[in-house]
Amino acid sequence: MLKEELKKNEIAAMKARDKQTVSVLRLVNAEIKAYEVNERKDATDDVVIKIVEKQLKQLKETLQYAIQLNDEAKIEEGNFAITLLTPYLPAQLSDEEVQEMLKEIITKGNYGPADMGKIMKEIMPMVNGKFDRSKINPMVKDILK
Length: 145
Fold this sequence. Notes:
Radius of gyration: 18 Å
CATH architecture of the largest domain: Orthogonal Bundle
Largest sheet: none
Number of domains: 2
Structural class: mainly alpha
Number of helices: 7
Helix content: over 70%
CATH superfamily of the largest domain: Uncharacterised protein YqeY/AIM41, N-terminal domain
Strand content: under 5%
């Protein structure tokens, strides 16, 4: 399970005295633990992937802000954290692959512009953790034109 892998890697980083890696993994593991305490159930791989995605999104936003401020230390920190967490996500789909999936869903279901919700409901489970969800809505609108 992904949760155990993250914890094992955090422990290995502690033993290696790699403070930077420990801090990034500790943050993710704390989010997982918070989810488990709040929901009173174990975090599945899907939940862990969503947590890692959320962390990556926050890191990327922070990185953009650091770039605007030209803060070299924060830029380096952000790049390190993004590089460290990205391998925990499943292999990412390309824009072209997602467009093909959307075209197939739209033609199979004979959907039109009014069926946006139905299309989104079908595609989301297929791309969960494998593609930036914020890009899907504009792609659907573009295909339906």
